[in-house]
Structure formats: C-alpha cells, structure tokens
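Q: Convert this sequence to structure tokens.
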Amino acid sequence: KAADAQASLKAYLDSLPKERTVAAFPFLLEGGDPQAGKKIFFEHTAAQCLRCHKINGQGSEVGPILDGVGTRQPREYLLESVLFPNNKIAPGFEMATVTLKNGKTVSGMVRKETDTELQIGAPVPNSALETVRKSDIASRTPGISAMPEMFAQVLTQREIRDLVAYLSSLKDGMGKGKG
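A:
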C-alpha cells in the first residue's frame, strides 16, 4: 500500500505544471486558517512579513501596504506573490539598476516611471529620489522584487495556505480581516 501511495503521489506531482506559477500548487489555494495566517504575518520570526509590509498601521512600508488586499486581489495572486514575488511586481516596488550614458550607475526601487523619466530611491520609506531621464539611460537591468523568493523554504505548506487565507480575508480596507 505504501508503494501504491508513493506511486500515486509521484504521478500527481509529475502531472503538475513545471512553470513558476501557482498552477503547480492548487492545494495551497483553498482552505487555510486566517487566524493562524495572521499570527504568521505578525509573529513568524523567519518570514518577518512586518519588516516590509504594513497592515492596519503595523509594520513597514518597504513593500506594499496590505490593508484590503483580499478585496483587490484573488487568492491566486496572493499565493503567487508569496511564492514567486518576481512574477508580478507591484507598481512602485521594482528594484532596478540603470547605467547612464555618462557611465554613472543608479540602483534602487523604481518609485515612479513615466514615458520619459524614472524616479529611483532606496528601498526604505521616504528615501531621497533620484530622477533619471530615460534618454540618458544606456542600459537597465530587468526589474526584480525587493521581496526574496524564500518563503517556500521558510514556511510549511500549511503556513503558506494559512497566510494566503489571512491575506484573502483582508477585505474591509482596514486590514483587520476576519476574526
């Protein structure tokens, strides 16, 4: 029976998509305990969500403020943001390095981008911004998220499901969520 179970598990895992999307993790989309997820968000020592995100006035603004995120985004987006933050970077939170035609390098978070300019600053709230004209840019690295892709290693699958359940529950716009 154990061999049959292992063969069934292997067949199931082999059937999942190999791309870096949530399609490979359908079992993390449903269920979860929002209260346990809230505890993970506010107290998990390895995940440290509060170092970069703010909910209901608690935390930091290095990353997006998450009040009401469950109203704005479906569970698939929330899970993808946790597991693969580089897939879809929230506007104003992309890290980039640009080399100007004069040889100068400017690195930081792209806080604002127009057709003609980039405003780049350190990945901390209220940092000084440097405005760069796009016509002065010789090269630009592809943007990456300031959020590390480590949560699949730091959190268990149950914890990820609970965290997504909590974030999905943040529908009142105030970050209190259910419970």
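The two ends are 41 Å apart (CA to CA).
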